[in-house]
UniProtKB/TrEMBL annotation:
The keyword Thylakoid is annotated on this UniProt entry: no
The UniProt record lists the keyword Transferase: yes
PANTHER family: PHOSPHATIDYLINOSITOL N-ACETYLGLUCOSAMINYLTRANSFERASE SUBUNIT P
Function: Part of the complex catalyzing the transfer of N-acetylglucosamine from UDP-N-acetylglucosamine to phosphatidylinositol, the first step of GPI biosynthesis.
GO biological process, one term: GPI anchor biosynthetic process
Chief place where the protein resides: membrane
Subcellular location: Membrane
Pfam families: PIG-P
UniProt GO cellular component terms: endoplasmic reticulum; membrane
Membrane topology annotation: Multi-pass membrane protein
Source organism, top-level taxon: Eukaryota
Protein name (database record): Phosphatidylinositol N-acetylglucosaminyltransferase subunit P
Amino acid sequence: MSGHSPSPTPERAIYGFVLYLGTYFGFGLYFIWACVPEEWLHSIGITYLPQRYWVLAGPIYLCVTFLFLVVFYVAYNFTITLPLDSINTITDKHARYVDHETKPVPAGSVPPLHDIPLSQVSKVLYKD
């Protein structure tokens, strides 16, 4: 069996369950740290904790970082996109055009994968 199969396996179920429990355990610890007074935590022997500033600052920093990454990803894609007047936006060396008149496709079969010529796309889009 292939190692890259998307089918469920017992190992994936175990990893998922451990991740599920770990997430709830981590949230529980965060909630206790955020809501329980420090005197109560000191009375049970928990003395080394981050400052309460990080109760709100940590999640806010994570959200802002996520939003920055989304904006950066979109901006990066704009920078690597070719200009509209570049010939490479129309075709490149890997283009595959199929002539259906010389190679007819049998009835009921899937046609081969190919690029659609720009003139055909323009005819459909602009009805010229």
